[in-house]
Give the backbone structure.
Amino acid sequence: AQSVTQPDIHITVSEGASLELRCNYSYGATPYLFWYVQSPGQGLQLLLKYFSGDTLVQGIKGFEAEFKRSQSSFNLRKPSVHWSDAAEYFCAVGANAGNMLTFGGGTRLMVKP
Amino acid sequence: DTAVSQTPKYLVTQMGNDKSIKCEQNLGHDTMYWYKQDSKKFLKIMFSYNNKELIINETVPNRFSPKSPDKAHLNLHINSLELGDSAVYFCASSHGGGTGELFFGEGSRLTVL
């Protein structure tokens, strides 16, 4: 069975600083990987996804993520964080593109002025 | 227009009652889902449904049942509510077997007293 671990429950960064959110997955074959963002009181919105090909994927709002098979990781990065990026971030893995996704426990990002 | 809409947004009820949460999507998707998000923000798939197949997460109690009057609707009915059912329930939809991107509703917060 697939699983996802997000080791950091909370992260606080200063506005303008760089950001990296960690995600490790467990799956026997090539996974389909996703990052979603959840603003307070809202549903989840897709930031980016990896299916195949280039291991560095670009997403919305200036986010990117890199798939590293050797480390079973799919970390999310942003070079300069904005106050509006404060939210809950979820990494997810799917066995195939249309399958039900398994989500990690989420990382809450707080942004200091 | 909201792509995936859920009603009600908030629901407070007593233990033992039966309640339903409605979900509608206007995206033309053929697969809909219900996810449960607990107090620790952990998201867990409950059901995946299209017009051909219902996939049930085996850990979901049979007090929970999805009901789909048509392709654009997937309602969640819960019998004999328990305290542990308190959570935020998210409806989502996608093209089955497509990009794997889920479109989420804003959630329905259920509180069982």
